[in-house]
Amino acid sequence: MEQPMIKKQNSDHGGDVVGFIDLPEEIVHHILLLLGAKMRDLARLSMVSKRCRELCISTPYLRLSNIDTEDKFKSFVDKFMALRCLHGVPTEQFQLRWSFDGDNEADEYRAVETWLQRAVASGGGVAHVRLQFIHPRKASQSQSQSQSQSFALPLCVMRCNSLWFLEVDAGNGVLKLPSLPYFATNLMILRLSHVRIENDSNIGALFSSFKCLIQLWLDKVSGIKSMAICSSSLWFLSIKSFDDHLCDIDIQLVKKLCALSINLYAKPSAAGGKRSLKISAPSFSTFRLSGFIVDHYCMRDSPHLQEATIDLSHSGVTVNQAAANKNNLDKILQCEECYKANHKA
């Protein structure tokens, strides 16, 4: 009687992963990316065999999250990033979702800064960075109590020539920007959300230093009294603000800007502070303005304007502000009529 065939096991690889780890390295990395493998998944896979550990360390896609992890996870990430830096492994994507739910927030911030520095130093830089910070305790604390710690974007990240996408969701935490001078990079897309800028930094100077920036998203960015945006490369700009300290928005010399969206949801100041909005974007074709009105408005002719969506609230405004609002609408409508007349001609 013929004996049944016994599946040969590989002592190093393990029978369940033989076919997987025998694939070319690039294909394994792509499969892990499609599966959405996070760092804890890599940690488990790296324990299977030496080959699995090498594949995990060499992956160009990093997704770090301490949600539902043990206390030792941070130590594993430290060693993992150190090994990648030692072997010069390039990083294509660096995504981090980190919960700061302890008393050692400063140490946690320094750890994240170190991981970012190692990602940039290893293999010639990083292309895609997405950071999301969660502060469960701060949600119930006052704003003054939650300003004790700040996260500083490492200067090496801001100067990284391979970086083209940067997103920071600070979870209403404080973000410390590098001091001048800034260096021009190849950054194309920048998204800042739920961020409080430290010490009213000159954020406009940061934007103007990125010579290749085409998309800029500012969602609930606070701590800025005035915002001057000047860019020769910007195509899309979105500003959504709930901060009543933001008094002046000055958008100038953005000749390539095609789409502009501004949402000002902070109510007019009870102290009578003046707010202004100045726009000089001759090429933009789509304009969306919503929220509360401003006291002073200046918009230069926009002959290419095709679509304007305006949704402004009159709640709590004075008679003078309402009159100014009517003038603002007239100017926008005049710009659209000018476009239609020129287009027909």
TrEMBL record:
Organism: Carpinus fangiana
Domain F-box residues, every copy: 21-59
Annotated SUPFAM superfamilies: F-box domain
Residue spans crossing the bilayer: none
InterPro entries: F-box-like_dom_sf, F-box_dom, F-box_SCFL_complex_component
Entry protein name: F-box domain-containing protein
Tree of life domain: Eukaryota
